[in-house]
Design brief:
174 residues, mainly alpha, 0% strand, single chain
C-alpha cells in the first residue's frame, strides 16, 4: 500500500517545482562554500525537469541521493542546510512530503546565511492553489510514520516548527 505521504504523480510534479524554487533561493550559500561541487545544482535541474514532465519518476528515484550527499563535504552550517534543501527537493519524485523538507531546510539555510530574510514568508507567498491543494493532502507532521513526516529529523527542532507553520498556512488559506 502506498504511503499517504507520496501523493499522485501530478501532485509530485507540482510540489517538485515549488521545492526547487525554495531550494534554489539558498543554493548560493552552498556554492560560495564549495564552488566546484555541482551536485546540488545538477540535482535541482533534474528535479525541475521532472516537474515539467521531461524526466520519469523512476529516473529521479534512482538518483535522488546524489544531490544531498553534497552536504557531507561542507562544514558551514548554512551551506550544509542548502545542500539538504536540494537533496530533499530531489526526493519529491519519490515522496511528495520531501517538498516540506526542502522548504524547511531552505528556511534553516536562509536563517543561518541571511538572518534578515523572511524565507518562510516567501515560501508561503509563492504557493499557488495547486501547491496548497497538494500540501493539504499530506498528513500533518508526526501523524503518519510511513515517510519523512514521521518521527525522523523533520519532526523535531526548527525543521518541525517550519513544517508546522507551512502546514498551518495551507490549512488556513482559501
Amino acid at each position: 500500500m502506498a504511503s499517504p505521504q507520496t501523493l499522485d504523480l501530478g501532485d509530485r510534479r507540482l510540489l517538485a517545482a515549488w521545492a526547487v524554487d525554495c531550494a534554489e533561493r539558498v543554493l548560493p550559500l552552498f556554492e560560495r562554500a564549495v564552488p566546484e561541487d555541482a551536485r546540488p545544482r545538477d540535482g535541482l535541474a533534474r528535479t525541475r525537469a521532472f516537474a515539467r514532465g521531461d524526466i520519469e519518476a523512476s529516473d529521479m528515484i534512482r538518483r535522488r541521493f546524489e544531490t544531498g550527499r553534497a552536504a557531507s563535504v561542507v562544514r558551514d552550517p548554512a551551506a550544509r542546510a542548502a545542500a539538504f534543501a536540494a537533496g530533499q527537493a530531489s526526493g519529491v519524485a519519490h515522496m511528495s512530503a520531501h517538498a516540506l523538507g526542502a522548504a524547511a531546510y531552505a528556511v534553516r539555510a536562509a536563517g543561518l546565511g541571511r538572518p534578515d530574510s523572511d524565507e518562510l514568508g516567501w515560501q508561503i507567498a509563492h504557493m499557488d492553489a495547486g501547491v496548497r491543494g497538494a500540501l493539504r493532502r499530506l498528513p500533518l507532521l508526526g501523524t503518519d510514520s510511513s515517510g519523512p513526516l514521521g518521527s525522523g529529523l523533520l519532526a523535531s527542532g526548527g525543521l518541525a516548527v517550519t513544517i508546522r507553520a507551512l502546514q498551518a498556512s495551507v490549512l488556513e488559506a482559501p
